[in-house]
Amino acid sequence: MSGFIPTVPGFDLALDALDGLPVAIAHGALDPVISVELGRDARDRARAAGADVAYRETEVPHILDPRVVPAIAGWLDGRFA
User: C-alpha distances in angstroms, 6 versus 47, 63, 66?
Assistant: First the structure.
């Protein structure tokens, strides 16, 4: 939620470990704290690494949009039921 994959010069993340894993990302398009571009980059990098990414982007600032909560709950339920 409003997250990103950090990039640090000289430190490469082992993103290949994401291959086949389910990943949920929700991001506010109007987030002034963590830009939506970082959320989109996380989506794209996770997908390129083979993750099964569910991405939700809504027109909100740096909050968890309550409209995405049911979708996230359903997504979690489908993996832990």
Answer: 16, 20, 26
